[in-house]
Amino acid sequence: MKGIVLAGGSGTRLYPLTKAISKQILPIYDKPMIYYPLSVLLLAGITEILIISTPRDIDVFKELLGDGSQLGIQLEYAVQDEPRGIADAFVIAEDFIGWSSVALILGDNIFYGSNFGEIVRKAALLTEGCTIFGCYVKDPKAYGVVEVDDELNILSIEEKPEYPRSSYAIPGLYFFDHHVVEISKKVRPSARGEVEITSVLKDYLWNGTLRVELLGRGLAWLDTGTHESLLEASNFVEAIQKRQGMYVSCIEEIAYRKNYISKDQLLDLAMPLMKTDYGKYLVDIAETTKGGKGRR
Fold this sequence. Notes:
- By secondary structure, the protein is α/β, with parallel strands linked by helices.
- The chain has helices at residues 35-43, 58-65, 88-92, 94-97, 116-123, 180-186, 197-206, 227-244, 251-257, 263-270, 277-288, and strands at residues 2-6, 27-28, 31-32, 48-53, 74-79, 102-106, 109-112, 130-136, 144-148, 154-159, 168-169, 173-176, 210-215, 220-223.
- The strands form 4 sheets. Strands 1, 4, 5, 6, 8, 11, 12 and 13 form an 8-stranded mixed sheet that branches.
- The radius of gyration is 19 Å and the shape is globular.
């Protein structure tokens, strides 16, 4: 399976913060926002990843992450000229996807939970159909909403409904087979001029190949579309890291634990960061944790 991080959009809700820089470069406590969705794909075992962003911002991501070789993965980049909706990402990524299944995660979504890595690893085994997730939220009106029966059969999917039929929001993490490209190409833009991901999901639903996994109370899902949610996400990450002493969405640590890089490679990544707690944490991981033999 391949992966896509959609880090586009104009970020106007966060002006003036995003007037000159991508939202996904903004810090969530001690690391750039894009580290969080990228870490989800790494936890799922996905090592071929396409980052899609705007013409203005794409070079910033290239400078930050390079070709991914320092993490033992392969990163590619593509441009979305203007915000045309989530499903447009699959059209842009057609050549990248090829005949592979693909996971897409939005660049402003943050997930945290003790068994989340296992959840996404299993989801990444998908070869046919589509898997989405459902997160219980207090006010689902601002999200796509999935309605299920007692046996988790999907009854309906709605995009930002005024009167939601369910309290289960669909977070920005999706797993598809390769047919998602041809389906996305057929979707007509909505009234707001975007190729809606909900339309793609409904196609899978009508074909009987859409499944949902409800995420329990032990998993935190945060999006960062407002100034308040940015602050809340940073405070959340700070609290977890200070209380537990383990970092959230540390892509270097994940690469090491997944054996994508060796101990020496991890230490090399840590050296330029030794004036920070982040760098010292990487050294501690290298010295106290087994694994990290690197790719052979």
